[in-house]
Batch of 2 targets.
Target 1
Amino acid sequence: MKKSLLAGAAAFLAATALTPAMADDIKQGGEMIVTYKDDVSTLDPAIGYDWQNWSMIKSLFDGLMDYEPGTTNLMKDLAEDYTISDDGKTFTFKLREGVKFHNGREMTAEDVKYSLDRVTNPKTQSPGAGFFGSIKGFDAVADGSTESLEGVTVVDPYTVKIELSRPDATFLHVMAINFSSVVPKEAVEEHGADFGKHPVGTGAFSLEEWTLGQRLVFKRNADYWRAGVPKLDQITFEVGQEPIVALLRLQRGEADIPGDGIPPAKFLEVTKDPQYKDLIIEGGQLHTGYVTMNVEMPPFDKLEVRKAVNMAINKDRVVRIINGRAVPANQPLPPTMPGYDNDYEGYPFDPEGAKKLLEEAGLGDGFETELYVYNTDPNPRIAQSIQADLAAIGIKAEIKALAQANVIAAGGEPDQAPMIWSGGMAWIADFPDPSNFYGPILGCDGAVKGGWNWSWYCNEELDKQATAADSMTDPAQKAEREEAWRKIFISVMDDAAWAPVFHEQRFTMRSERLGGPDAIFVDPVHIPVNYDYVWAKDVQ
Amino acid sequence: MGSYILRRVLQSLLILLGISFLTFVLLYLIPADPARQIAGRSATAQTVENIREQLGLNLPFYQQYFRYLTGLVQGDLGRSYLQKTEVGELIASRLPATLLLMLGAIVCELAIGLTMGLVAALRRNTAADTSLMVLSFVGVSSPQFVIGILLLYVFAVQLGWFPIGGYGTFRHMVLPSLTLGFLGAGWYSRMMRSSMIDVLRQDFIRTARAKGLKRWQVLFGHAMPNALLPIIAMIGIDIGLFMSGIVVVESVFGWPGIGQLAWQAIQRVDIPIIMGVTLVSAFAIVLGNFLADMIAPLIDPRIKLR
């Protein structure tokens, strides 16, 4: 098994391995079959927000910014160039000329403005509208009083200026997420609510066919503005296939990528088989799995109790339960995220010390509580392991295994779920920046009814530090900003708002027929793979 | 007869109304907030509120139900929260696959069940009879996901005779049809056996033999048609049986029908789809029972509809 993206440093190495010269030697052509269990929900970039359609949308659409394939490094996409004003509040993007939508019309600055107006318009019901909160005039659009963002102006057909109401160091990342994809007005208006079934973008592929419940076919965009991309002529997504069936089909040469991954029951068998050694690629993920403790609900209002839980959980055993598909965590940020603290050691696994802490808190006899968990494998098994660890220090936790939506709903209530195991629900970063691991899940903004801060942890001092860090928009302040975030997350650990358990690793399996640098098969922003850069060996 | 049909139609409508109400109540009580679900994890409270309003989820229960019924009588099953598509369109696009699978299952269960029953009846109280009846008992009591996975493993993975799941050709259809039909085959073999034994005892069979007809002529010309009568009426009721089976079978075999749609929707708590598939299934069951009742007097004139 190849480990290519284990640490941040490795990620950069992998990135440099993917030089354009090398990519250009690859002949275009061929096709692949990707399988999925569930049908694709929508391909509308303003709406799509699950990991399955995320990467597909990236291949159909482009935004102003993107990431270098296989890395978390920002690069210009539809923007040929950009300038940032000294106060960090005005971004001026110069657009690439001659870029065409799949319907043949040229993309211009008007389309950029239209797309941003559309995604923030409440009628669009975009789950990503909140990402654009820093654009001037966002509030007026959000409350329905106007349909045009004041801060976004078309300077000329190839220049668009975006003014912010506050400095936002993450703004270029925001321009790289799917919600910022540029869409043509006429196609959106023609299909209305069904645009997601008839997507038209500027991306490397266009949608050729969609048979509900059966398959989608992506065809190479022959007019794509980026030379030599994509590599494949066609990608067929076959839906309705259980992961186990997908694996069998791959082994028989009938499919190329099992989109839902290697099924847990077969994981050891497949990864230990020398035949598949080179076909399985391991990579890091911007993911952390954690146990939240509701600081509003006694006894978790006591710091000692939260620390005790941190020290009681045997993280190595949890990692073994999922066959080593993760690395143990000691802080909220995943290792591949800027701001990760390599020197921080976290709370040790020390049940005796944990017991002492409980005694200090006056809970030497233990207490009873509830642990909420999403009811699909392996989460209940992980919860049982944590339950046993807690029992060892005297905490009797009853497991509440529920459907995903119900666990999320319970977490969003101030007094319902004392503990939640986040597996299968939270948190994978929307974009590779530490701020995305704070606001919604650890900041005061998230500690609201229906929010995702299930610990209900709200530290106003840290919120201030977070705002200050996100105001450092000057690229020269990059290191300073990272350091600020590093401190914030270590402070979170001092307060023991969570017990971080592990960071999931990704294992992508591919068929023998597919080629490409390992990094694109575990691309941090494309799951399962970066469709644009995979190539077929049989046409080389 | 006419008034009977009218009464049955009205009854059926009432049943459907009751089912729609019950399902709506159950789904309403689920502690999942659809607006939150649509809004996703990064949404602001304002976005969620705005979606709730646009979907009418802030209305009182009876108003929501009334809205749903109003849509329903206009043939509008609502719009899926997560699939972002009209539920009617999703179901319509998947219904042909489900009907095809049911047809395959009916053929399988009749072919297997009737043959087993016939052989068992003719070899009554022999080892063959006993083993066939044990087999039928296995068929009736085995969970379909077990049978499905076993068939898949043996005939698709090990022997490679059939594709591993999927849809499109005749070969794709064999294993799922067998799995779905296996349960019914168990029932039919038992019914066929007792029905056949019954008929073979009748005087007209003895008469037929006595007037010199060959054994097979008696069997297929006289005994079979009579033994089959009560069985045909059962096929309508099978549709209900299938409706519960397709959820499992379609998921195991990756068959793109409404059972798979329901299963995916249940996992993701996509309420409009669950509601739509439940209603369509209920309709199919009610229709199946209705047809079974209608056919009964045609087959056996002793039955009168009143």
Target 2
Amino acid sequence: MDFNRRQLLTGTAAVTGAMMLGSPATLAQAKPRVVVIGGGAGGATAAKYIAKDSAGAIAVTLVEPNAKYQTCFHSNLYLGGVRDYASITHEYTGLAKIAGIEIVRDSASMIDRDKKEVVLAGGRRLPYDRLVVSPGIDLKYDSVPGWSQAAEEAMPHAWKPGAQTLLLRKRLDAVPNGGVIVMIAPPNPYRCPPGPYERVSMMAHSLKAAGKDRSKIFVIDPKESFSKQGLFQEGWEKHYKGMVEWLGPKVHDGLKSVDPASGTVVTGFETYKNAALVNVIPAQMAGAIARDSGLANASGFCAIDPTSMKSAVDANIYVLGDACIAGDMPKSAFSANSQAKVAAMMIRGELVAARTFPARYTNTCWSLIETDDCVKVGGAYEAKDGKIAASSTFVSKTGETAEMRKQQQAENMGWYAGITADMFG
Amino acid sequence: MSRRLAASVGFLAASSFTGACAGDRELGAYLSNECVACHQISGHVTGGVPRITGWPEENFIAVMNSYKDKHRDNPIMQTIAGRLADDEIAALAAYFGAVTSQSSAK
């Protein structure tokens, strides 16, 4: 009898214990939490799609230090005077209105992967069930001999939008007729493969429009070839004859050094002195938060699972956009936006059992060579053999009609309006 | 007997056509993600990217198939449509067809 009674009491205690253990679990079930680091094409899109498609069932916190966002895409069009700065500037007010999104104006200083918390510069800790890391690129300031972060005023990069974009435009506008511009092009892989060459085109457009057609742009490139090369070179010959000279490594024989104080660029073959403007676009790597958190490999970028965009090293983290290694996809805003939608779907699948479909990705990059002369390259992509592989690609052809190129520029402007509406709201 | 057979063939043809239009909206919503990187879900038109919301489903399917078959020549649309199966095109037609400028399918 005693034995039975004790057994009964023990049993009751066990039940009570289970109930007590049960209550914190019930609290934790309140709402799954997703933190998104970075409010660019990857992060803003991911935050929006997770929140809207889960109809508020997932609490999304977007961490972004800037109140306003200037797009890197179309910043070359600002440089060329084709569009104004206000038109490439966006706010987060639309995103903030979507139910389930909290926007925190701060930067992430650390990811505590064991505790699943993001520590902000301001000290706040944000616990997460899933984390999206979309910090974009950092510049390798030591990749160009003689150049440094301290020299980015004298020799701007303008490869991160904002103050640098404004500075480069100011410096371009101040180039005298006959002045020499030298662009140091970046090695692969880097943000926006056709970007440097669209920039050369828009610089030449600006010079020509200002009647400064005795000026000349030299491109010192570490690469043997570049994106849409035939199209750009055809366009430079057609629109800016004698104003652009592209030099591959066999021709310039290596970039030896730059001197920001005197505007000098030394290559194995030639020394450019007193350049009116030197635009240094250095080598690149994933943003610091991704590298410091151990998400990047020796390449400086982050390996991902091509079927989901999940980090190869942490099952609770997704890495998007320029910071990740996306196989055949270029580092572009379009790619980041496409990857974000796959990640958002997979995250909803994991956290709220939403229906998921096999990942598929797309990208298109338009480049403006001269007003009304726009070319494009793009493709469709899928997970194949452990990477994101192109299943189909296309690129503009040399010799296309002026009408077709003009139509492509209209498409380019339409895409810009479309993707920014898609990102912000 | 032969008349009944003809009637049932007619019925089958009609139902398979209806089936092509009755797309899976959830699949369509996912597939639509790649469309709305350029075509605005609000129906707003900027530059050279047309509105694709609120179309009759049959028209949407016909246009997508014309890109898939390369009768229309935009290489982006040929690439997008080229990998879409018939049921996926039907799903997109159903999804975008149900989006009107007044609806809030943002």
